[in-house]
TrEMBL record:
<dbReference type="InterPro" id="IPR015507">
    <property type="entry name" value="rRNA-MeTfrase_E"/>
</dbReference>
<dbReference type="Pfam" id="PF01728">
    <property type="entry name" value="FtsJ"/>
</dbReference>
<dbReference type="InterPro" id="IPR028590">
    <property type="entry name" value="RNA_methyltr_E_TRM7"/>
</dbReference>
<dbReference type="InterPro" id="IPR002877">
    <property type="entry name" value="RNA_MeTrfase_FtsJ_dom"/>
</dbReference>
<feature type="region of interest" description="Disordered">
    <location>
        <begin position="317"/>
        <end position="348"/>
    </location>
</feature>
<keyword id="KW-0819">tRNA processing</keyword>
<dbReference type="GO" id="GO:0022008">
    <property type="term" value="P:neurogenesis"/>
</dbReference>
<feature type="binding site">
    <location>
        <position position="80"/>
    </location>
    <ligand>
        <name>S-adenosyl-L-methionine</name>
    </ligand>
</feature>
<feature type="binding site">
    <location>
        <position position="148"/>
    </location>
    <ligand>
        <name>S-adenosyl-L-methionine</name>
    </ligand>
</feature>
<feature type="binding site">
    <location>
        <position position="82"/>
    </location>
    <ligand>
        <name>S-adenosyl-L-methionine</name>
    </ligand>
</feature>
<feature type="active site" description="Proton acceptor">
    <location>
        <position position="188"/>
    </location>
</feature>
<dbReference type="InterPro" id="IPR050082">
    <property type="entry name" value="RNA_methyltr_RlmE"/>
</dbReference>
<feature type="domain" description="Ribosomal RNA methyltransferase FtsJ">
    <location>
        <begin position="48"/>
        <end position="231"/>
    </location>
</feature>
<feature type="region of interest" description="Disordered">
    <location>
        <begin position="1"/>
        <end position="30"/>
    </location>
</feature>
<protein>
    <recommendedName>
        <fullName>Putative tRNA (cytidine(32)/guanosine(34)-2'-O)-methyltransferase</fullName>
        <ecNumber>2.1.1.205</ecNumber>
    </recommendedName>
</protein>
<comment type="function">
    <text>Methylates the 2'-O-ribose of nucleotides at positions 32 and 34 of the tRNA anticodon loop of substrate tRNAs.</text>
</comment>
<dbReference type="GO" id="GO:0005634">
    <property type="term" value="C:nucleus"/>
</dbReference>
Length: 362
């Protein structure tokens, strides 16, 4: 059974459902999400920044990912729950563990600081990001690279699967720059119709590839995780970022391919079967006579990608109606920077001005 970290320390056994202090008015909308998503609720109660922490914990339970790891990289890390897992597992949580253990987290977005985790705000498709990671490891390669990266899903499945596959290949590419021979790479994958093509590309670099579905990952989602062990690049392979997304033209012996190459890899449903089922609704556990007390998220996003949309919506700029620029009515956007004077702008230009001003740090 996985030891489950709590804010106070480590506890073992099944995930506890802590009793809550009473007296706080139940907030219906919020508590209904807590009821529907047990891992979301547990994440807040145990101090994780996101429910995905449980996915990495359950993968580790199955594959002992952290054994002997001194240098770990968390790609696409924000808001940071996987980095929290790495920090707690490798460094004991307070960032005070052995100095020899180093963790680097990378994301496009800013992330609140975490003890014992060096943060890079950067793009995993850039060679400069790979160089920065290696710099933090003082020239040494990493033992473990994890990537829970995901693009913003559009709801159009083919597009979402394609973009996710490209992000996985970008993660694989940067991993080939920073991972030690024999090291492990774990990454989110969408099990779409072309997934076998991805497996074949992973098998070029790793002899041991398994697709795993942790219990905390909803069955209703096509998300799973590839666990790739024993990093062993083909002879003569020189990492480079000129094609950060790699291309589909090599087989497992690094020969140029004519047609598509597909392999089947083992699939493993992992996580203790007694663990909570992420597709089920669990009742809120309330002490007799007590009302549910809502726990706020552990770490709200610093600069969420939807910030711009919220601003536009608040100022009625999302719909373009004929007549005067809605920006004129909304006024300038002082809290986001100084938008250029919008007078006389057509709505499109006004929106562009606002967006331009939004790219300036507040
Ligand atoms: C699902 S979230 C990761 C959650 C994280 N593992 C956690 O446990 O808190 C996906 C992240 O991927 C990041 N991302 C997407 N494309 C990226 C890229 N090219 N470079 C760096 N980060 C990227 C997004 O900014 C987003 O924060």
């Amino acid at each position: 059974m996985t030891p489950v970290p709590s804010q106070e320390g480590w506890v073992t056994g099944p995930h506890p459902l802590p009793s809550r202090p009473g007296g706080v008015r139940a907030e219906m909308g919020r508590s209904s999400k807590d009821k529907r998503d047990i891992y979301y609720r547990l994440a807040k109660e145990e101090g994780w920044r996101a429910r995905s922490a449980f996915k990495l914990l359950q993968l580790d339970e199955e594959f002992q990912l952290f054994e002997g790891v001194r240098r770990a990289v968390d790609l696409c890390a924000a808001p940071g729950s996987w980095s929290q897992v790495l920090s707690r597992k490798l460094k004991g949580g307070a960032g005070e563990g052995p100095d020899s253990v180093k963790i680097v987290a990378v994301d496009l977005q800013a992330m609140a600081p975490l003890p014992g985790v060096v943060q890079i705000q950067g793009d995993i498709t850039k060679v400069s990001t790979a160089q920065e990671i290696i710099q933090h490891f003082e020239g040494q390669p990493a033992d473990l690279v994890v990537c829970d990266g995901a693009p913003d899903v559009t709801g159009l499945h083919d597009i979402d699967e394609y973009i996710q596959a490209q992000l996985l290949l970008a993660a694989l590419n940067i991993t080939t720059h920073v991972l030690n021979k024999g090291g492990t790479f774990v990454a989110k994958i969408f099990r779409g119709k072309d997934v076998t093509l991805l497996y074949s590309q992973l098998r070029i670099f790793f002899p041991d590839v398994t697709c795993a579905k942790p219990r905390s990952s909803r069955n209703s989602s096509i998300e799973a995780f590839v666990v790739c062990r024993g990093y062993c690049p083909p002879e003569g392979y020189v990492p480079n970022m000129s094609n950060p997304l790699l291309d589909h033209c090599y087989d497992v012996d690094f020969n140029q391919l004519e047609g598509p190459n597909r392999v089947i890899v083992p699939f493993l449903a992992c996580g203790d079967l007694s663990a909570y089922d992420s597709d089920r609704t669990y009742p809120l556990q309330l002490a007799p006579g007590k009302e549910y007390s809502y726990v706020p998220p552990t770490q709200p996003p610093i600069r969420p990608p939807y910030q711009e949309a919220c601003f536009l919506k608040r100022n009625n700029l999302l719909t373009k109606e004929p007549g005067p620029s809605p920006l004129e009515e909304a006024g300038p956007a002082p809290s986001y920077g100084s938008a250029p004077e919008p007078q006389g702008c057509p709505p499109e230009a006004a929106v562009e001005n606002v967006l331009a001003s939004l790219s300036v740090s507040p």
